[in-house]
Amino acid sequence: MLPRKIADSTVRRLAIYLRFLEEFEDQGRDTVSSEALAHRAGTTSAQVRKDLSFFGSFGKRGLGYDVHALGIRLREILGLGRRYRVLIVGAGRLAGALVQYAGFSARGFEVVAVVDRDPDKIGTAWGEIVIEGVAQLEEIVVREQVEIAILVTPADPAQGLVDRLVQAGVTAVLNFAPVQLHVPEGVDVKNVNLAVELETLSYALAHRVHA
Amino acid sequence: MLPRKIADSTVRRLAIYLRFLEEFEDQGRDTVSSEALAHRAGTTSAQVRKDLSFFGSFGKRGLGYDVHALGIRLREILGLGRRYRVLIVGAGRLAGALVQYAGFSARGFEVVAVVDRDPDKIGTAWGEIVIEGVAQLEEIVVREQVEIAILVTPADPAQGLVDRLVQAGVTAVLNFAPVQLHVPEGVDVKNVNLAVELETLSYALAHRVHA
């Protein structure tokens, strides 16, 4: 049995632990301490032990965690045991980088379609994927059994597009558009806002300079 | 006088408000209500009023906020009144997308140098920027008066690179490497971890499916 509700912040730490476990495994290491995981994830070893205790016992007394067993369990918890079919909405440069990003495919996120509204882009190929028109959005969601949409558009069209995606059955959205999307309950949206991240840095720099 | 310490979450909302104010200004609108800002930022109008009350009075009774005046003040608060010199570490596809991302330059973030460790990339041009070797990191930071570094590398070399950047005088880092960086006090790091965002979605999908 999996615990029903894990806080978003815990899920994030689990994803980071998993990344380290995979590195350790590649290096041929069998065990890892909670201290090492804590250091890499920027948290405390008490937090690591608490996070992992939810999911059963992986510790070997005096040796730390079993790298292989814990990795399998974390992949299972994070839902990484299977592939997810991903639609990219907006065929700009950032989308191009995402399509090529090996990390996505390695973790089971498979880009199955790309749409854009620019007639010059529609019909051109990105690797094996031919860019389709945004008018076909609903049809593509059904045809490709899309589960996750990645929105890489300007702010303005984003809400209208996410409404159409949700209507067509998509329940998970990774949003790069600089706008807070409104979705019904049961739909998950994660936001990546590069400009906002940079502005929190400029804020920090500006206030250090004036301090 | 600016308040000394604003919570990171508040700074993020200010950055989002600013984006909307700029849209409203482009549309020729003079005022905006706290309700409209709240809706776009995914928060409450009480929160908007609280956030903005820190910085003086921008409300016109019964009319809402003055779009132009509030925009100027938010740009000032966010440190966007000047340009920031940005170094990109790691010349992969994602870095390429960042260099071309118009939003960065429009908000004053100017990419002044790109470094990579791949000899095949060093010496090639990205627009007006010639990619340099990572061995020159410290020299470039000084020569280009770099203020912000964007780290777009695999996890493994990231900590070593950030140590060198900090040593050379960089105090603000936007980190795309899937690793928690350790930096001394006075250095700000913001993390953008695309794979972790996707995994929080796969977690949500997996647990909906099994529920």
How would you sum up this structure, described in words?
2 copies of one chain form a homodimer. Chain A has 211 residues and is α/β, with parallel strands linked by helices. Chain A has 2 domains: 8-77, Orthogonal Bundle (Arc Repressor Mutant, subunit A); 84-196, NAD(P)-binding Rossmann-like Domain (Rossmann fold), CATH 3.40.50.720. Chain A has helices spanning 8-26, 34-41, 45-53, 67-77, 93-100, 102-106, 137-143, 155-168, 194-209; strands at residues 31-32, 59-60, 64-66, 84-89, 109-116, 125-126, 129-130, 132-133, 148-151, 172-175, 188-191. The first copy, chain A, has a 6-stranded parallel β-sheet. In chain A, strands 1-3-2 form a 3-stranded antiparallel β-sheet. In chain A, strand 6 and strand 7 (129-130) form a beta hairpin. In chain A, helix 1 packs across helix 2 and helix 2 packs across helix 3 (45-53). The relative contact order of chain A is 0.09. The model of chain A has no long low-confidence stretch (mean pLDDT 86). At the A-B interface, helix 1, helix 2, helix 5, strand 10 and helix 9 of A face helix 1, helix 2, helix 5, strand 10 and helix 9 of B.
